[in-house]
Amino acid sequence: MGSVKGKRIVLGVTGSIACFKAAQLCSTLVQLGAEVDVVLTEAAQQFIAPLTFQSLTRRPVYSDLYDVLPDLSSAHVELGMRADALVVCPTSATTLARLARGSAEDMLSCTALASTAPLVIAPAMNVNMWSHPATQANVALLRERGAIQVGPVEGRLAEGISGMGRLAPLEDVIAGIRVALGRPGALAGRRVVVSAGGTQEPIDPVRYVGNRSSGKMGYAIAEAARDRGAQVSLVSGPSALAAPWGVEVRRVETAMQMRDALVETVNGADVLVMAAAVADFRPDDPAEHKIKKTDADLSLRLVRNVDFSGDIARQGGPALVKVYFAAETRDLVTYGEQKLRRLQADLLVANDVTEPGSGFGTDTNRVILLGRDGSRQDLPLLTKDEVAEQILNRVERLLSGQS
Ligand SMILES: Cc1cc2nc3c(=O)[nH]c(=O)nc-3n(C[C@H](O)[C@H](O)[C@H](O)COP(=O)(O)O)c2cc1C
């Protein structure tokens, strides 16, 4: 679910200066395995030629309302009817107005009207055009009807000034498309809470005790759950990764901050996935000011952080599906099984972080899934995205009462 591979996507392109970015979006969607049909408005052709999209998709490009498909059926209804998702990127103010009032006056608006597929809009325009009450009312109405709105964002606009109206990053537009495709997914209506990354425990205002967790595994799970229709909260320790679009992200630094954020988010959740590497110890009494260098050695006294994993799970209630990670450097299964039992987890994801290609910072991971029923599933070395899918397959089974 949520994957664009094999999906029929209609890409509408309108007359905005951000049109050139639509070519990159089109190329990326094709590379991800989507079947992309491009509809250009008349104005869009002032900015970018149909040939660009025809070459990228190796399919006809449509712009005339009276165009026909290769089988001679009417493009203005057929394209929309067979689409899995309709994305308009960039969406001009004019097209927003047409979509809002249900106009069928050109090929793109007609395609949208004839389609029951989810609509993704990515507005891009001048700052005043964007903030105009007419535009805001049009966007609000489209959102109310279920359109997924991605951006705009604040930044440099074509007229040389900075303001709200810039096209959202293309990664976010693709995330919006994934969300659209994943709406009917198995986790639709479910709330999933994921913890990710490592924590940093201050020694003084400039130094900390931390660990090597990058957050990649937890972020991959958050995105995969979002793409299966879930409403996702991600509680993240410091990470270089960008906040995934469509996920509520809370950034924290210390273990105690992570506990507080999880306490706030876990209520009412259906699934808890604890992928964060939380510090077991923290420096006792961190210095208020930077500790100055002297010739003497320095000893740090570390005190035990409270292990809050069990408390968070209890707060979530008895129906909460609980998934924990165990990062180990030896005796993986023994330690994993101990943790599974201690925390009464439904699923324990054990990974040996010293194995090549596995563990912290890598894009791949080799894990063993230990189930509460005593089952053991050894997965091969996979990308973290693939591991996330495997974990969520198990989560779906647990939600439906299987183990
Ligand atoms: C150079 C130039 C840049 C433009 N950029 C935008 C833009 O970024 N966003 C927008 O809504 N309209 C923009 N317009 C105006 C649209 O092209 C115009 O409103 C047109 O009616 C859009 O029609 P369409 O939605 O059918 O493509 C621009 C016009 C020009 C001449």
> Which runs of at least 5 residues are low in confidence (pLDDT < 50)?
none
Termini Cα gap: 21 Å
What ligand molecules are bound, each kind once?
flavin mononucleotide
Report the C-alpha radius of gyration, rounded.
25 Å
Per the principal axes of the C-alpha atoms, what is the gross shape? globular
Q: Order of strands across the widest beta sheet? A: 13-12-9-14-17-18-20-21
Q: Write down the oligomeric state.
A: single chain
CATH superfamily of the largest domain: CoaB-like
> How many structural units, i.e. domains?
2
The largest sheet, given as strand count, sense and whether it forms a barrel, is: 8 strands, mixed
Rounded average pLDDT: 93
Family: In the C-terminal section; belongs to the PPC synthetase family.
GO molecular function: FMN binding; metal ion binding; phosphopantothenate--cysteine ligase activity; phosphopantothenoylcysteine decarboxylase activity
Region (Phosphopantothenate--cysteine ligase): 192-403
Protein name: Coenzyme A biosynthesis bifunctional protein CoaBC
What does this protein structure show overall?
There is one protein chain. With 403 residues, this protein is α/β, with parallel strands linked by helices. The chain folds into two domains: 8-182, Flavin prenyltransferase-like (Rossmann fold); 191-399, Rossmann fold (3-Layer(aba) Sandwich), CATH 3.40.50. The chain is built from 13 helices and 22 strands. It has an eight-stranded mixed sheet, sandwiched between helices. A six-stranded parallel sheet has the order 3-2-1-4-5-6, with helices on both faces. Strand 2 (35-40), helix 2 (50-57) and strand 3 form a beta-alpha-beta unit. The longest helix is centred in the last third of the chain and has 16 residues, at 384-399. The model has no long low-confidence stretch (mean pLDDT 93). The protein binds flavin mononucleotide. Flavin mononucleotide is lined by residues 14-18, 41, 43-44, 92-95, 124-125, 129.
